[in-house]
Each structure stands twice: as structure tokens, then as C-alpha cells.
Amino acid sequence: MATRKGIALAAGAAAMVLMTACSSGGGGQTSGDSGASGGGATGEFEGRGPITYVQGKDNSGLMAPMLEDWNKDHPDEKVEMIELSAEADQQRNSMVQNAQTQSDAYCVISLDNIHVAEFAAHRWVEPLNEADFEKDKILPAVWQTGLYRDQLYAVPYASDGGILYYRKDLLEQAGVTDPPKTWDDMKKGCEAVRGLDGHSDIGCYGGQMAKYEGLTVNVDEAIHSAGGQIVSPEGEVVVDSPEALKGLQTLENAFKDNFIPEEALTYKEEEGRAAFESDRLVYYRNWPYQYSLTKEKLGDKFGVAPLPGLTADQPEGGMSSLGGHNVAISSFCKNKATAYDFIKWFTSEDIEKRLLTEQTLAPIYSALYDDQELIDQYPYLPALKGSIESAAPRPQVVNYGDVSAAIQDAVFPVLQGQATSEQAVKDLSAKLTELTSAQQ
Ligand code: GLC
């Protein structure tokens, strides 16, 4: 069997193959009629004045206050933050609509890395000059997420890797002191906690299982952790394989056995966090942003570990999907010169350090993961770096929204107990083959 690292690299290669196979059409616009002003690849933009910065829901509430520092130094080029939905799919819808109407309402946009290819292919965002950024200091897999056909379009400012949050307090009361390394360990730990007074029906494990992008992430992780892939390095749909089936069956059975509680079918990131913090879950898979928020609620009652391996022979852990967000300049923004300066400021090492220490977002700079003072304060940093470095990118296809929706449509009924994993991988294979060949 291929190594986990090998699979991650292969998946990255798959994304590249698909990316090159994609045409720039499909959204009713081609590069010529998009209104893009050009010149960005050299870093020369025009237009100064107020700008907007558009991102998904700010769970921390700390992003807007941080932007005030920029505003103090740039009184004539202030940035106003526009917050969109908490869901990646909805964020994309708003941004696509803004681009299709060629509106200048959104200027700097925070693109989920899965949407970079689509926005670049349609020329809804400006090409940027990579010489203006510190590429060599940035984790290579993270830098890669901002490129489309080898051209930089969106600079990463927050990476993301899945990590496991666990209720250290309850587990310790139940006599379990070691963090879990495998799903079996989690099963044992949860059984022990269920033996405690008042916790007999606590949920064991949760991830984001509601029908939205988070589900695609969790399914992709289960499939990769089982040694499978959804799409091969050659761009072929390979989800109809024994390994992918095993990954999906692990989730199917976990629901059947009530290891994952039924209410997890409604969890997006924040719903699951609420369950974890209110004693309804022993283990929860989420992104690092949760750390600062849970620290406020639970203090030292929780711990963080790498994602566990699906089976006992995987003590090295499970594989994360590569999450993250990148900033890009909308082609329809008026004050692009200001926007470009803002992006340089926003992705600087100083701001990255603040995004870590204030919001526990995952840094893009390698050095911040190795800084002992930061590790003392954020002990999960080495696990997070490992999670990101071995993470598998989701397919970076231009029609990613359709691909992800197909994954969600196929697997959600399985988790609800209304379809089998066997049928789902077959149906998904057919649907994805149709969708990926439509792009060639
Ligand atoms: C996080 C990740 C993003 C992912 C989303 C799914 O925001 O950074 O890449 O798509 O979660 O819910």
C-alpha cells in the first residue's frame, strides 16, 4: 500500500492534472469579457481609496478589530469587512454572484482554497506577482493552493488541517490518560467515559456531517485515511475502490453503532463545537480556530491530538483534507492598488503571528510552527504542522462546487442509514466521471 505521504503528493498531482485539463469556460464568461484590468501579474495596479474585505463568518469576532490597525495607518484607504455565511458553499455563492454581476462591492475576497481554480479560470480575480510574497518561507503545499496553471491568484493567509479535540477531564476521570491514536482507542475511551455517572449517553465522536462542504472534508479524510482516493493522480475517478469503500463504511458503521451520534448529521463546525463544550461529545474533529474559543469555555479540560488512524495498524494517524483560505483581488474592485497593499500587509509574518495568537488560525509560515515560545502556548502546533504537511488537497477543479455537491448527495443518505456505502461509491463514481469529463 502507498504511504500516507505518497498519497498526499499523488492527490496533489491529481489536482494539478485536473487543473490543466480544465477550460476557462463554464460560467458564461471568458477571460476577454470579464472586465479584468490586467497588469496584476507584474504587481502593478491602479486605484487608491476605500476597499472592502469579504470573508465567511468571523467566529472569533476579532478580525474586524484587527483591521482597525490598517485603518489607523491608512485613513484614506480604509478597509471595511463584509462577513458572509459560516458555510463554504454559501460563501462561494455570494462571491460568484458578485462576480457574475461584475459588482465592485467585494474587493479583497477571502477564497476557500477549493474555489481558487474556479475564480482564476473565470478571471474573476486578478493574477498577482509572486515575487511580492515570501514564497520560500511558506509551507509548500499551502503556497500551492493559491496557484492556477502555475500563476499566483490568491495568497494564503490561513491554512487549515484537521485536529482532534478530546475531553481530557472526562477521560481522566474514567482512567484514560493517553490521547487516542486510533479509532479503536477512541471507542475504548468513550466506553470508559460512558461508565461515569451522568454520562451514559454521551456521544463518542463527531465531525462536520451536515450536508455542506464540511461533509466533503470529513468523507475525503475517511477515504484517504483508509488508503483510498476520490480522484487518482492521473485525474481519473477512483472512488469505486475497496479502500474508498472501507473509508465510507467506517463512517456508515460509526453512525449505525452510535459511535457518532445521529445529531452529528446537523453539525457544521460551530454546532459540533457547542456539543463538545456542553458535554455531548468526548471527541471532536475540527480546525484549529476552535482552540482559542474552547480554551475560553473549558480552560484545561480538553486536549488536542493528531487525527487518529482508522484502524489499529495506523498508529501514525489519519489523514486530513487540506483546508485554508487565501486572499485575492476581485477583478471588479475599483481600488486595486490599495487592495494589493492590503494583501501584502494581511499576509505578512507580523499579521500571521497575530492571527495565530488572537484567533488560533493555522499560520502559512513554516517558522511559526517551530517557534518554542509559541509551541509552549499552543502545544498543538507540531501536530497541526504534521496534519497540514501530509494533508490531501481536495480536487482543485474549476467546477469544484458541482464535484463537492455530488459527493455530499451520494454520502449523506448513507450516514442517514438510507443507502449503502457500496451503492454510494458506484453512483458517485458515475456522477464524478460525468462531471470531470465535462471539464475536458
Ligand atoms: C474550513 C477550511 C475550508 C473548508 C471548510 C469546510 O473553513 O479552511 O477549507 O472548506 O472549513 O467547512
Automatic annotation (TrEMBL):
UniProt source species: Schaalia radingae
Signal sequence region: 1-24
A Pfam family it matches: SBP_bac_1
Taxonomy, superkingdom: Bacteria
Family: Belongs to the bacterial solute-binding protein 1 family.
Protein's UniProt name: Multiple sugar transport system substrate-binding protein
UniProt KW Transport keyword: yes
InterPro entries (UniProt xref): SBP
Compositionally biased spans, kind Gly residues: 24-42
Residue numbers spanned by region Disordered: 24-50
